[in-house]
Design brief:
The protein is mainly α and about 230 residues long. Helices cover about 80% and strands about 0% of the residues.
Length: about 230
Amino acid sequence: MNVILQTLFNPARAFRTLKQEGKFPGMALIILLLLVAINLILMIPVTAKIMEITMSSTSIPEEQKNIALQVMHNMRYLQALGGVFMTAVTLFLYALVMFVITAITKPVLGYIKSLTVIIYSYFSVVIGELINTALLYFKGWEEIQSPYEISVTGANLFTSVDKVGAPLYMFLSLVNPFQLWFIILLSIGIKVFTDMKYTKALIICIIFWLITVIFPVASAWFGEMAMQRAGVM
């Protein structure tokens, strides 16, 4: 736990310690996934609200809507568990992406080292998600009128999905202090583990971040297209 806190507030020292230990970050991964699980459980009523809004905008018969909502309610904790599993898979994939990028740019950061840097840096993202959830509760998640209103910590607050479209709006939601924190922690970790220059490490992390945000942005684009075809938008 001390190393986790050090990673957040004294990352250079924390990553030097992790480099010397050279251990698989198993305990940090467990703690991270527990925090993810807590956030997903807290988000259950918000997710149900979004599902209700989405279903109400479709032409599906009322009886089928109620069945779908009931099924989702019954499976809410299983869905949260699935979210935790997907987060774990994502972290391992992120480590692979980082390993490939550094293998191209040199010096290479081994896979386990990449995973270590990713996991410890990702605590900043999870903290951001928890704060976002807390803000939703503070503002009153019952008042949510659109699926796009659940991101309240990013640059998306300065515009609207109607003005810029879902893909760009999703991208802007990821431009937030916690993602910036994540990039900074990653760059420090890579610098410590590989001894490369900080500027190069920072550029690598920005490239890595841009690659990782492609997936949620693409998902938002496909979602927008599907909703338009269904006549929801």
